[in-house]
Specification:
212 residues; alpha/beta; Rossmann fold; 14% strand
Amino acid sequence: MTRTLLCFGDSNTHGTPPIVTRGQPYRRFGVDTRWPRVVAASLPDWTVVEEGLPGRTTQFPDPVMGAHMDGRDGLKIALQSHGPIDVLAVMLGTNDTKTRFGATPEKIVAGIAGLLDIAMSLEMQERHGGFRILVVCPPPVLEQGPISSEFVGARDISLRLSALYAALAKARGVGFLDAGSVIEVSPVDGIHFEDEAHRRLGSAVAKAVSQL
């Protein structure tokens, strides 16, 4: 029986390559590179749904990119657009470290908790006949490259997220994967993943999903 995995995240789930020049044209890695597609190749009996939106946050409407960057609304839409699903993988938090949001590590983890509240609600669980959840903590950012001015102070914040995400996942009884233990962000822009990192992350997520 085919099972379904919904991957919910930001530009790194979408497959945005490292940004070389600010304002460069839209680009996206191909299906042979993006980590959700690597998961699909590793789990041939699964259907993998990609729901990655560049700029998405756990909880903040973005004054620059738009109110639709708030992941809470996006998750509700995704869970009502697809289904039934068997596993939801959530990897968000990188954009929450942007300077303009002024978010502490605890505030960012509260955003993840809010997403778990939505996903674990009776309404959503009944809609899909029950599904498991994998929380993926994104790797720490580097404050360098063409968009570093948007992430002033983000390095220290992002370094504290893994332990907080892990504690939350344990408290909620959901799966956890620290992406920073598997990959690093690209030194080109300090935010996005190189193609090889996508492949390694995809393999790690596939293993974590299988263990759920």
